[in-house]
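A quick word before the example. In earlier lectures we treated sequence and structure as two separate objects. From today on, think of them as two lines of the same record. Here is Putative iron-regulated membrane protein written that way.
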Amino acid sequence: MSTRSLKTWAWLHKWSSLVCTVFMLLLCLTGLPLIFHHEIGHLLGTEVEAPAMQNDGARVSLDRVLEVAHARYPERVIQFASQDEDDERIWFVTLTPTPAPTDDFRSVAVDARTGEILAEPRFDEGFMYVMLKLHVDLFAGLAGKLFLGFMGLLLLIAIISGTVLYGPFTKKLDFGEIRRHRTKRVKWLDLHNLLGIVTLVWAFVVGGTGMINTWADLMIKYWQYDQLSTLLAPYQGQPLTPAAERASLQRSMEAAKAAAPGTRLSFIAFPGTAFSSPHHNTFFLAGNEPLTSKLLQPVLVDAKTAEVTATPRLPWYLTALLVSQPLHFGDYGGLPMQIIWALLDIATIIVLGSGLYLWLRKRQPATTARRKQATVSA
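And the structure line, produced from the sequence above:
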């Protein structure tokens, strides 16, 4: 590689790293507890658990579940209802002032066996909420997500440029060699290079999936515009289906499951909400295999008749989004994968911190020299 090319790659690595380092450090620090969000929730007592019952297989009607939840907040409308993939004994019902997307929501956990309220978990406060908001959008909404997406792009550029530079800068060293007899800065440089190449694939995967996740809102809006608008052509001009005119939700759910056998319910979006239409209850069903459990099949059920009107396949970009979300937090392989993700996260924090340290140390001699020169001139 020519000297000019090396300088170009070095310039790219230097400035892409410097611009994104502080934000990447923030994302790594906030992402660490998020890897163990379930475990931390159990320790803090914020996880909702179903009590033991003799007749554990009993289930009340979904209509009853929603009736109980709505009675708790009658001035609100139900946006979503969902079940945890690990425990189908609990329904989580989300209620908001209007069907439109909002951060003003209340959650009610209802026992699927008895129809009794178990808890009213608050997902919009506490330590884990702060960590999540800082990690997702810096408390700045869509603008914050897109900004972090751009920082993720710079991280990918820094990783690629760092990989290109690794060979030429370490060709006289054994792989992983730390020159302990040299200065402190040289030792940190060797450690930075070693951990950087060790975490290369992981950092690229997590950085790439994180960048994809920041586009989620835009992807969903495009899907609604591109596909849902075509499916809703027969309903053109009709107003939002009133709650009083809607058919049984239990019957609608049974129709949705019959249309997609071999799946389980992930969540339900009600008429007028972000993931549905003004005229449908949209059931998002997931597979039962490790990979397909993260992929969703939407089933649109007419809110008035409880008849399935469409089962569109998600486009490739939403499939990529659904796969990237659990991969980003290491949700595919249980606790062992979470531990691996955490160790690689810590190693990346060291890479980012050492890179910032090396840049600051490199600037110190030049700054000191300029000050001495200014003193002599004076």
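Notice the following. Residues 152 and 207 are 6 Å apart (CA to CA). We will return to this example when we discuss secondary structure assignment.
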